[in-house]
Amino acid sequence: MSGWRTFAWQDGRLTFLDQTLLPGETRYITTQDYRVVADAIRRLKVRGAPAIGIAAAYGVVLGAKELAGAAQFGEKVRQVISELAETRPTAVNLFWALKRQQAVLERNESQAEAAMIITALENEACQIAAEDEQVCRAIGENGATLLADGITVLTHCNAGALATAAYGTALSAIRMAHRQGKRISVFADETRPLLQGARLTVWELMQEGIPVTLITDNMAAAVMHLGKVQAVIVGADRITANGDVANKIGTYGLAVLAKEHGIPFYVAAPLSTIDLELASGADIPIEERAAAEVTSFGGIPVAPEGVAVFNPAFDVTPAKYVTAIITEKGIATGDWKRTFRSWITPNE
Ligand SMILES: CSC[C@@H](O)[C@@H](O)C(=O)COP(=O)(O)O
After folding, report:
1. Residue 2 counted as domain residue
2. What pLDDT is recorded for position 111?
3. pTM of the model
4. Looking at the chain, which terminus has fewer C-beta neighbours within 10 angstroms, N or C?
5. Is 237 a catalytic residue?
6. Which structural domain, as residue segments, surrounds residue 111?
7. What total of structural domains would you count in the chain?
8. How confident is the model over 93-112, as pLDDT tens digits?
9. In degrees rounded to 5, what are phi and psi of residue 316?
10. How many other CB atoms are found less than 10 A from the CB of residue 207?
């Protein structure tokens, strides 16, 4: 990637790229305050399921550092974990990463001093970030096997390096195929209301020299009908035991369209996005965001004041529309529950 990183951890400070300012400005925020991390997750300065988990894991470290020396240290760190868990409800990676930090706290709490617990939490956060980079690389290598030379793929939202520690998930597959010398072109949906496709996916792909064409969300049906797309590949915020997939609002429509046009619909995600505790997509909490995201565009009002707005940030694609789920362990093409169980050991 061309000289930018989603995260850096150095000398007890977290640095992250403010994604709300892209593509106009590449500005990093450096903080020692977990509240700044929580706020960044809420406001989508850090966004994308794996990236939210990584940011939250570092947030726990920052919170614990601030509490070093406080009475009832363990209890207070648990409160920081709860606060971070309140930031966004849909991406399960957030809760997966916080559970890992909670487990570190609980393993060390009875015999270790605060300083040792903080070191253990820091090691775990760095491990979560390092693992994500490896995992995304593996997802990309597995996903690239599905992308033939010369095809055009359509993607939605941003499932790229910005949404992870590096490489991305859906965009990792595209990246790896491109790096292998395959000629892959991309249609990027703009992804209303917050334009992750236009602002972030296009930015990432253009920096890597991958041919990308921007379309508005309502053009996807037409480009498929015109025979311009050979595969759809998206990321996920949560995948349930039966293979249902929550991802950015608009994904479900693309899956239905892909089926109608006989186009494969691929989902690329790490195992940390699979939630075996939920039986189906109906159980996934779907975040609803502020009306202003819909009633204005780039800060300019585009609807009469006071209009009623429904603004779900995600939708659920039923498993029957999913051709394959690409993970770091391999590619699932059905029999979801059994395949996921064979990949995920309890507590992983
Ligand atoms: C690898 S990121 C996968 C998903 O998190 C991504 O597709 C998505 O829906 C992100 O939504 P966002 O609201 O921008 O956090």
Report:
1. no
2. 82
3. 0.97
4. C
5. yes
6. 7-137
7. 2
8. 999 999 999 999 999 998 87
9. -115, 125
10. 14
Q: Do 169 and 92 have their domain in common?
A: no
Q: Is the pLDDT of residue 147 over 90?
A: yes
pLDDT per residue as tens digits for the range 309-332: 999 999 999 999 999 999 999 999
Q: Is the CB of 157 under 6 A from ligand 1?
A: yes
Q: Tell me the pLDDT tens digit for each residue of 45-76.
A: 999 999 999 999 999 999 999 999 999 999 99
The answer on whether 311 is annotated among ligand-binding residues is no
Residue whose token pair is 């951890």: 9
For residue range 81-95, list pLDDT tens digits in order: 999 999 999 999 999
Which of 18, 189, 217, 237 is an active site residue?
A: 237
Distance, CA of 66 to CA of 180 (rounded, Å): 46
What distance in angstroms lies between residue 163's CA and the mean position of ligand 1's atoms? 7
Q: Are residues 116 and 244 in the same domain?
A: no
* Residues 165 and 126 grouped into a single domain: no
Pick from 137, 155, 179: which residue ends a domain? Answer: 137
Instruction: Calculate how far, in angstroms, residue 44's C-alpha sits from the geometric centre of ligand 1.
Output: 10
CA of 121 to the centre of ligand 1 (A): 25
Sign of CA dihedral 171, 243, 38, 127: negative
